[in-house]
Amino acid sequence: xxxxxxxxxxxxxxxxxxxxxxxxxxxxxxxxxxxxxxxxxxxxxxxxxxxxxxxxxxxxxxxxxxxxxxxxxxxxxxxxxxxxxxxxxxxxxxxxxxxxxxxxxxxxxxxxxxxxxxxxxxxxxxxxxxxxxxxxxxxxxxxxxxxxxxxxxxxxxxxxxxxxxxxxxxxxxxxxxxxxxxxxxxxxxxxxxxxxxxxxxxxxxxxxxxxxxxxxxxxxxxxxxxxxxxxxxxxxxxxxxxxxxxxxxxxxxxxxxxxxxxxxxxxxxxxxxxxxxxxxxxxxxxxxxxxxxxxxxxxxxxxxxxxxxxxxxxxxxxxxxxxxxxxxxxxxxxxxxxxxxxxxxxxxxxxxxxxxxxxxxxxxxxxxxxxxxxxxxxxxxxxxxxxxxxxxxxxxxxx
Length: 399
Ligand SMILES: Cc1ncc(COP(=O)(O)O)c(C=O)c1O
Known about the structure:
This protein starts with 21 loop residues before the first helix and ends with a strand. By secondary structure, the chain is an alpha/beta fold. The protein contains 14 helices and 14 strands. The protein is globular and about 70 Å long. Bound molecules: pyridoxal-5'-phosphate. Pyridoxal-5'-phosphate binds at residues 64-66, 90-91, 93-94, 136, 162, 164-165, 186, 188, 199. Pyridoxal-5'-phosphate is lined by residues 64-66, 90-91, 93-94, 136, 162, 164-165, 186, 188, 199.
């Protein structure tokens, strides 16, 4: 068995490295030359472009998905004691946004085959204090929106979709992020399209979008960002204690061009996803199930499950072995109740959410950026095969 790494150190494959092309580089430079770096016409254009792509009624650009989630929680008027149900298989930002809005997060376990929140578990957690459900379309696979929308109607609950992974995601022909009151997108560096840091709130009604806009810029009245424009000085009125969450034109300059390639990038990630599925079909790891009928998966993450019981190697040893092959990998995610803050504050224990715990302890995300070359993909496959060679064969689908 060869002991030299699959890739040389100077070719370390960075996990989630975005494809950045000349058009956005030139637009950023042009934006800098205009002298208008902050929120301005490019942000307004990016908002329109995203709204058109997502067939959304309204869109407000912000500086992260975390900000988008926080403002959405505030906009539904959560009060202390209110409960918001979300998934344990998410990034901490989803849960923190609920906490920062003054409400109490409540977790409902995932379905073990999709990694998405299980509507049956959600219903079991609904109390007379529940105000909202926050589904996360994990890895870009849509949640069971028929069931979640039915719960939201039956119990009169707000719906805020965390679409950080789900720009291209569709469910029965409808875009993720347009099912409930708000949809929150991320354009963070590792996401399907990027602006560096960046996010967007999709809103179903105009009044909600206006509220988000005001909250995103100090609580200043709408269009306060135009106060220094060539239309003459405009006074603004502060009508709420808001936040500094606005997106800059410099960021939108990147996003406008990235969005034009969203479908091209999606096709490339779909191709990589299929290559991985085929290459790993006979290995002892878990691989993702196919997208459900009538859905569009965004292929944001390709996650395998490395369960020591079937592979003979622990997940963390596997992570380190991939790094030794000079291939960057990720973990999405250790389940939320694994983290000490939530254990101490809410008394959560990972064992209470067994599916999320198992996934979180076995999952590994392999590189799937549209930037990967065919050689990069072959290297990832060769490294996975090499590391598992001593393990036992037999593939399993996530179940
Ligand atoms: C599921 C999920 N929600 C929210 C966020 C927060 O996004 P951002 O980094 O744009 O604030 C992320 C980021 O990784 C995420 O994966």
